[in-house]
Design goal:
With about 90 residues, the protein is α/β, with parallel strands linked by helices. About 40% of the residues lie in helices and about 15% in strands.
């Protein structure tokens, strides 16, 4: 059975606050999610190892944030993917 990807629409994630709100909702993070990079990493690593996350319209992803912030978030996603076997795809 193939796991359907969870879609994160980058058009709704142009700021870091918007990204945290969106990812917490679509991935059903617990209410105590801390809305920071460490909490993001912890919650991503708690997902099932065969989970799939698709980030759509990637040109808009954290568009209003600095390149440094965007890269830090991408590093957390990549780290969670490699440590936990998540499948993260951008399109």
């Amino acid at each position: 059975m193939t796991t359907q990807p969870t879609t994160i629409d980058s058009r709704k994630c142009q700021t870091l606050d918007d990204f945290y709100a969106t990812v917490a909702k679509v991935l059903a993070f617990p209410p105590h999610f801390g809305k920071n990079l460490d909490a993001l990493s912890d919650c991503l690593c708690d997902l099932k190892s065969d989970s799939k996350i698709e980030i759509t319209d990637f040109d808009f992803f954290l568009l209003e944030e600095s390149d440094t912030t965007r890269n830090k978030v991408l590093d957390v996603l990549q780290d969670a993917a490699s440590r936990n076997g998540l499948n993260v795809v951008v399109s």
